[in-house]
Amino acid sequence: MIGHSDAIRREILTQLGVGPTPTSDLITDVLRACKLTDRAAIRSELKRLRRYGVVEARGRTKAVVYRLTALASTLKGYACTGLEEHAVWSEIGVPFFSPDPENVRRMAEYAVTEMLNNVIDHSGSPRVALHLWRDMAGVKMVVEDRGVGIFKKLQEHFKLANARHVVLELAKGGLTTDPERHTGQGIYFTSRMCDRFVLESGTVSVYSSRKQDWIFERASPVEGTSVIMHIDLPTSRTDKEVFDAAMGENYYGFGKANVVLKLAGDSLVSRSQAKVVMARGDKFREIVLDFTGVKTMGPAFADEVFRVFARSHPDVQIKWMHTTPAIEHMIERAVAAAEAEGPPGARPAD
Question: What's the whole-model pTM score?
Answer without folding.
Answer: 0.77
